[in-house]
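To whoever picks this up:

The parser on our side crashed when reading a file containing two proteins. I've narrowed it down to the boundary between the first structure block and the second sequence. Both blocks are reproduced below exactly, byte for byte. First block:
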Amino acid sequence: MINYFSNNNFKLKNKQKIRNWLNKAILMENHVVGNINYIFCSDEQLLEINIKYLDHDYYTDIITFDYKENNRVSGDLYLSTDRIIDNAKLNNISFDEEIIRVLIHGILHIIGYNDKSPNESKLMREKENFYINLYKN
């Protein structure tokens, strides 16, 4: 089950459409949906999590805690709406498109895709773009 929580005033639009799309993406990756929690928060809250759990002292758009068992996708995904707003402006795209990218990015990490090397980043971006196009259609 996919759940949405907000630790700030953010309200996700199109919750059911997004839930259906994420379910479809997970199934297309030959996985099943477990317990997935998206938690929307501020830059400052995500920075605290980044420092406390990952020992990283910088802002990021998403931190994913992966609880996957076998092929059941489960996890807590913390998203900074502040960072998503800034990244959308930087990339000259809408907030809605950027948040969709970040939502699927976290799921792809849980499934097992990484983005540490150039080849991994390229594959991750291809997967993101594929699923973003699926969402739009």
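<<boundary where parser fails>>
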Amino acid sequence: MTPEEGDAILHDYFAPWIQRLGLRVEETGERHAVVRLPWSDALAREGGGLCGQAMMAAADTATVIAISSARGGFVPMTTVQQSTTFQRPVVGADVLIDVRITKLGRTLAFSEVTLTPDGTSEPAARASTVYAILA
């Protein structure tokens, strides 16, 4: 799957409020994807840091792209579990969301997600997800 096909999935299968996050697929691979969450003052909380809800939604959405890439295209799926740990604030920077599929079964997929501000090597957050594959 190409990044352009990943962008088409974002456009075709996600709610308008997710589309307003402005996510862009940067990279896709056999068992991974990298998605960019552009910085927006509209997503900042008091104090100027990117809100955790936006980062969690972006991580959840990026997982769909990674699973779709691993499966060769979009299939119906749903989140079963997501656990996120925030390590440092993000201020004034895009976030790169790197999703690695750790197990891809017939009905479940597991992933590890790293959220890193663009231009740094220190993650701002880490997440793990479990998805049910419905088709």
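After patching the parser it read the second block fine. The mean pLDDT is 97. The longest helix spans residues 52-71.
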